[in-house]
């Protein structure tokens, strides 16, 4: 099944906000076996919205329209849908009752303009918004399906899942997509292994690098997905850390919580990014005690207890300093595990012996202290992200093996 996305809003067209909805929807739809072949952005202009709708419906059987469903005068998507599809807007009393109830509970004065959200094209199905006001709309006409979603990211995410469940219930998807996430192998190594795995399967697949991770996207018949997953797990072993929306930080968090272990971080080159990833996970206070950003040499020495002898003899970009940082933060914050990063994010600071993209990850536990070397080749921000992911992967492997 092929589809197109239409995003409505001046702020989207002018680049005033990042269109995170587009990235989310494309990934979600791909994972449900729905190909996204075209993405269009238009201003809050009735004529432009209608023209874009008519254009997309000429080529696609499924079109998602995002934004423009609110109560204000520049929310024009409902009217555009009505005119483009020649379906008059009808007032839905039960929907209006629900919208008023939510407004009352929020302590918001109910105004006449709120009523706009209760008008939907004739014959459309609506799905109530579990986290907002404007519902999702599912409109069928002439063997075409148009789905309208609110533009607020949280609302769009919640409703898009509900819409897809409804659509999949009506029509079996021809293919499903799984994304297998791998760390510790080069993209070329992943590709070589995949070619061996898929000799007996008829699948479409591809790889992409994401912050040092390699994502393997596989599109196959739903009846094959389970067997494919077993083969991928067998081939990649511990290099495979997650599937679909699983992240390293979530996987590590589950392992720490399951083992009842606490963690502290000492960061130099990642500048707090490692701690940020860890604390992005809800409930991370169950296992994360805290962290130190020790960017300069004297902070490494005075706060974490890194010896000046090690700094002078080996430089801060070394196994020795990484290990002392990890042990220092473990003792300082009284955690079961200390995890550290020290390296060269670039673009300056590298040498032939210590190039840009080099990072050392230290791991201190009750069993002892280790360090690991990684090399990446991204820009400064990309290297920092990869460094943080490398540290998480070091910790993940330790937790799996011990």
UniProtKB/TrEMBL annotation:
Xref: Pfam families: CinA, CinA_KH, MoCF_biosynth
Cited PANTHER family: NICOTINAMIDE-NUCLEOTIDE AMIDOHYDROLASE PNCC, NMN AMIDOHYDROLASE-LIKE PROTEIN YFAY
MoaB/Mog domain segment(s): 4-170
Protein family per UniProt: Belongs to the CinA family.
Name of this protein: CinA-like protein
Domain of life: Bacteria
Cross-referenced InterPro entries: CinA (IPR050101), CinA-like_C (IPR036653), CinA_C (IPR008136), CinA_KH (IPR041424), Competence-induced_CinA (IPR008135), MoaB/Mog-like_dom_sf (IPR036425), MoaB/Mog_dom (IPR001453)
Species, as recorded: Thermosulfidibacter takaii (strain DSM 17441 / JCM 13301 / NBRC 103674 / ABI70S6)
